Amino acid sequence: MKATYYGQSCVEFDFDGTKVLLDPFITYNPLAKAIDVNAIKPDYIFLSHGHQDHVADMATIQKNSDATVLAIVETAAWVRRQGVPDDKVVEFNLGGTIQLPFGTVKMVYAAHTNSTPDGQYGGFPVGFVFNVQGKKIYFAGDTALTMEMKLLADLKLDWAFTYWWILYNGCR
Questions:
Q1: DSSP sequence for the chain
Q2: What gap in Å lies between CA 39 and CA 16, rounded to an integer?
Q3: What is the pLDDT of residue 7?
Q4: Does this model's pTM top 0.85?
Q5: What is d(CA 153, CA 63) in angstroms, rounded to the nearest whole number?
Q6: What integer pLDDT is reported at residue 162 of this predicted model?
Q7: For residue range 42-55, what is the model confidence (pLDDT) as tens digits?
Q8: Cβ contacts of 59 within 8 Å, gap of 6 or more
């Protein structure tokens, strides 16, 4: 298991050969100026919300990689409007859990706003809890601190990724 931090809230996980990209913001991201967006080839792309600084490179990366994009229902509708085929878009909702070849992913609450780059309502902003290879990884997206985060303590997270900092807690 490997994590690559591209800056902002853009992280890529490699789960034993399955690549998962979160909030693809590379091209306009000063922290990722040395990264070739065309070289990023994930199997899955997760979007925490639709703001430009979290989705700017979604369409390019999806087209280059044929990745499946996962997001809350309203943000997934925007993904489809960008030309991503229906069979490459998975929409789910708060509290929902998706089973994927590498493990499970649960969509959790986040406190933020959510509109898409075209000005449409993007649904709730979200975070994700990945359960992979016996490890639990929380990706907070672009959330403010919330009381709901106390509920995550029971999960005994191994990693937590937030918008402004990365908390590393012993995952190897």
A1: -EEEEEETTEEEEEETTEEEEES---TT-GGGTT--GGG---SEEE-S---HHHHTTHHHHHHHHT-EEEEEHHHHHHHHHTT--GGGEEEE-TT-EEEETTEEEEEEE--S--B-TTS-B----EEEEEEETTEEEEE--SPPP-TTHHHHGGG--SEEE-SS-EEE-S--
A2: 18
A3: 83
A4: yes
A5: 37
A6: 78
A7: 999 999 999 999 99
A8: 82, 83, 84
